[in-house]
Amino acid sequence: MGTLWQDIRYGIRMLVKNPGFTAIALLTLTLGVGVNTSIFSLVNAILIRPLPYPDSQELVGLGQSRMQQGAGYIQTGVSLPNLKEIVQQNTVFQQVTYYRFHSYNLIEANAPERVLSFQVSASFLPMFGVAPRLGRFFSEDETIMGKDAVAIISFGLWQRRFANADDVLGKSILLDTRSYTIVGVMPRNFQFTWDAPVDVLVPLAFTNEEMGESARSSRDLETLARMKPGVTRDQAQTEMDTIAVRLAKESPQANNGWNITVEPLHAAYHRHLVQPLLVMIGAVSFVLLIACANVANLLLSRATARRREVAIRLAMGASRARLIRQFLTESLLLGLGGGVGGLLLAFWASSLLKAEAVRFIGSPGLREMGIDGRVLVYSLGISIATGIIFGLAPAWHASKADLNDTLKETGLSVATQAGPRRLRSGLVVVEMALAIVLMAGAGLLMRTFVRILGVDVGFNPNQALTMWITLPHYKYGSDTQQFGFFRDALARIRALPGVASAGSFNTIDEVFFTPANQPRPSPGEEATATEHSASPDYIRAMGGKFLAGRDFSDADVAGSSPVAIINQTLARRYWHGANPVGDHIALLAKVYDTQDVAKTQSLEIIGVVADIKMSEDVWKDYSEFYVPYSQHPTPGMSIFIRTQGAPTSLVPAAREAVLAVDSAQPVQDVRTLAELVSLNHDFLRFPMLLVWIFAVLALLLSAIGIFGVMSYSVNQRTHEMAIRMALGAERRDILKLMISEGLGITLIGVAVGVGVALGVSRLISSYLYGVSAYDPVTFIGVAVVLLTVALFACYLPARRAAKTDPMVALRYE
Asked: Which helix (H) or strand (E) segment is 334 a member of?
C-alpha cells in the first residue's frame, strides 16, 4: 500500500509539472467520458431503470394479436367476454385490470376545458401499487352502471382548478353534463400514458350489451396484469396460448386466428427505442475510443521524452513491472480526472438532453432521468477502463528502454525508433478508422433525413390553419347532431374574410377490405386500409391533389349511395394502374372492433387523390380511403382552414365562428399546418442531431490526434530536417515529406475505416430511406472531409519544419 501511495504522489507531481500535456489529456477524456455518461443516463432512464412502480417486473400487458397480410403484426386490446374467461381460467396472474381512453368537457368556473380521462376498473391503481395523494381508490360497487359517478383527479388538475385545497375531497366536478364526486387525488409524479398526462380517472361501468356475447369481437379494452411471484413471462405466455386455442374453438367467428400476447410492461413502453438507443451507445463508444487513442499517443510521446529517467531507474534496480505500474498509475489518474470532468459535463448535458427527449419520448422513467448511482458506477467504470486502455501500451514501451544507448545519449531518436513510431501511427490509423465509421453512419442518416424532408407529403402546409374539436356526447349523441355542428361551423368559417377553403377530417378505424370484384379472402389474408371521415373541400383545404374523379358533394348524404375516395397507394396496390373510379371496395370488418359490422358494406369509388401523409413516418406508403362525414359523422374532427394571408391572423375569428355555433365548445390544439409538419420532423431531427454531434467530436479528436503526432514528429526530427536542408533539400521538399507522411497514415486509416463502415452500415439499414447502406456519395464525401481536415492538421507542423534554420537545428542535439 505504501508503494501505491508513493506512485500516486509521484504521478500527481509529474502531471502538475506538465500542465499543457495534462490539460489537453484531461480535456480529451472529459469530452469522451462526458458524452458517454450523458447518453448512458438516457439509456439508464429508459431501458435499464425499472418502471416507477413497486415490483414493476411483474407487470405485463395483455393484448389480442394476429399476423395480417399487407399489415404485418396487428395487436389490439381484449374484448370483455374474452377477458372474463382469461381471468377465470388463468393460474399465472394475481391481478388483472383494464381501462379505456375517454375525454370529457370539464365545466368549472365558466371555463370549459377538454380533459383526457381513463375509464378504469377498480383494480387499476392498486395493481400499480400507487397510493393516492389524497383520498381513496374506487370500490367494486362503483363500477356498476348508475353508481359510477365518482372521480379521482390528477395532481395537475388539483393544482390548476382547486389550488391544492385539502378539502377537495367530496367536492363535485361537472364532466359533460354529469356531476362526479371527487374521492381521490393522484400523486404528483404518477404517469402511465405516453402522451398528455391523464387528468381524470372514472370507474368503467359496462352496459348489458357490452357484457353480452355480441361484444366478443370488440377488442377495445387495454388490459394489464400482475404476474404471481415466481411466474415467468414464458410461463404466462404458454398458458395464454392454451386459452387462445380454447377461445378460438368456442367462438371461432370472433377469435379464429387471434392470439393472446403477454408482454412485459417495460418492454411494451420501450420496444421501439431499443435499437436507436443502442446505435447512440455505439456512436459515443467510438468517440471514447478515439479519445483513448489520442491520450495514448500523448502518453507515448511523454514516455519517449522520459526515456532517460526510465533508464536511470532501471539502472538503480527498478523492475519493469514496477515501472509499468508507475506509468499505469499516472494514466489512471488521468482517467479518473477525465471521469470527474466528464461527470460534471454530463450533469449539464443530461439536463439539456432530458429537456429535449421529454418532448419526443413518452417514458414514465424519463422524468426521473439524472445522474444516479448506476450512472456514477458506469462513469467510474469507463474512467478506470479508459485509464488502463490508453495507458497500457505506452507503459509497456516506456519500460523497454535500452540502458546503454539511453544513458550514453547515443540512442536513436524517437523518430527513428520503429516500435514507438509504428505504435503512434497505428493509434492514428485506429482514430481515423473509427472517425470514418461514425461519420459514414452520420452521413447516411443525414442523407436519409434530407430525403425525408424532400418527401412529397401530398399537401401544401403553407397558409393553412388546423384545430381540433371534440363534441361531448351529452349534447351531440346522434349522428345528425354531430353532422349538424360541423356543417354549421364549417359554413361560418368559410364565410370569414381571408378564408380560401375549409374542411374537416378524422380517422375512423383500420378496416379489412377487398376490391368488390374479387372473392372474399380467408381470415388473416384480408387487405387492410385506414378509413377516414372527411367533408367536402377537405382535400382542397389541405392543398391536396385529385388524380381522378371528383370530391365529395352536398349530395353525398346519409341515406344516399355510400361512396369513397381512395388514395394513390391503395389504387396502385389493388388496381395496378387501371382507373378504379366507378369500381367498388367491400368493407369486411373493422380491425379493432368488429361488433358493429354485421355484413359486408360496398362503397363506390368516386375519386383518387395523391397520398396525404400526416404521420411521422412520411416515408411509408399506407392504403387509405375517405368517406363523407355526412355519411360517417364522428364526435371529434380536425378543422383545416386554407387562408389567403397569414394563418395565425385568423385564429380569433375561427374560434369565434365555432363559439357562435356552441358557446360552451372548447377548441383545442390550434396551430398552423406548417408547425404540425415541423413537429413530425422534430421526432427525427433530435436523434439525427445527436449522431452528428458525436461525428463532429470524432472528427475534431481525430484532427487533434494527427496534429499531435505530426507536431511531435517535427520536434523529434529537427536534427534530421537540418541535415536534409544542409545537403540541399528545399523547404518545399521538407513540406512535401512531412505532409506525405501524415497523409499516408490518414489514407491507411480511411481505407480501414471505409471497409469497417461498409460492414457496420448494414446495422442501420432499417433506418435509411432513399439511400443505400453502401451509398458511394456518402462514403466518398466523408473520406474527402477527413482527408481535408487531416491535410490541414499535417500542414501546420510541416510548415514549421520547413522553416527550420539549419544552423540552429544542427546545434539542437
From this structure: helix 320-357
Residue 486 DSSP SS3: helix
Please tell me the distance from the alpha carbon of residue 245 to that of residue 266, in angstroms, as a whole number: 27
C-alpha 120, offset from chain centre: 29
Q: Euclidean distance between the first and final Cα of the chain, in Å?
A: 41
CA torsion sign for 62, 66, 72, 74 is negative
Contact 669, 467 (CB under 8 A): yes
Query: How far apart, in whole angstroms, are the C-alpha atoms of residue 531 and residue 534?
Result: 10
DSSP-based three-state secondary structure for 674 = helix
Query: For the CA atoms of the chain, what is the radius of gyration?
Result: 34
Q: What is the pLDDT of residues 702-713, one digit of tens each?
A: 777 777 666 666
Distance CA(694)–CA(287), nearest Å, equals: 7
- Reference 341, options 372, 286, 382; nearest CA is 382
What is d(CA 688, CA 698) in angstroms, rounded to the nearest whole number? Answer: 15
Can you give the pLDDT at residue 273? Answer: 72
The pLDDT tens digits for 549-608 are 999 988 887 778 899 999 999 999 888 888 999 899 888 777 765 444 444 678 899 999
Going by the DSSP 8-state scheme, the letter that residue 590 receives in this structure is E
| Tens-digit pLDDT profile for residues 352-369 | 777 666 666 656 666 667
Ramachandran angles phi, psi of 668, nearest 5°: -120, 160
- Phi and psi at residue 91, to the nearest 5°: -125, 10
Q: How far is CA 306 from CA 310, 327, 425, 559, in A?
A: 6, 11, 20, 94
Which burial class, exposed, middle or buried, applies to 812 when counting CB atoms under 10 A from its CB (0-12, 13-18, 19+)? exposed
What is the residue-averaged pLDDT of the chain? 79
Nearest to 792 by CA among 708, 724, 707: 707
Number of CB atoms found within 10 A of residue 406's CB: 19
Query: Please, is 445 exposed, middle or buried when counting C-beta atoms within 10 Å of its C-beta (0-12, 13-18, 19+)?
Result: buried
Tally Cβ neighbours within 10 Å of residue 796.
12
Concatenated DSSP letters for 516-528? TTSPPPPTT--EE
Number of H helices, E strands in the chain: 24, 21
User: What CA–CA distance (Å, rounded) separates 289 from 301?
Assistant: 18
Residues whose CB is less than 8 angstroms from the CB of residue 412 and which lie 6 or more positions away in sequence, other chains included: 405
Q: Are 29 and 338 in contact (CB under 8 A)?
A: yes
What span, in angstroms and rounded, lies between the C-alpha atoms of 681 and 675? 10
pLDDT tens-digit readout, 648-674: 888 889 989 998 898 878 888 888 988
Q: For residue range 748-771, list pLDDT tens digits in order.
A: 888 888 888 888 777 777 777 778
Residue in the block written with cell 418502471? 51
Give the long-range contacts of residues 477-486, CB within 8 A, separation 24 or more: 479/558, 479/633, 480/558, 480/633, 482/633, 482/634, 482/635, 483/558, 483/629, 483/630, 483/633, 485/661, 485/662, 485/665, 486/535, 486/629, 486/633, 486/637
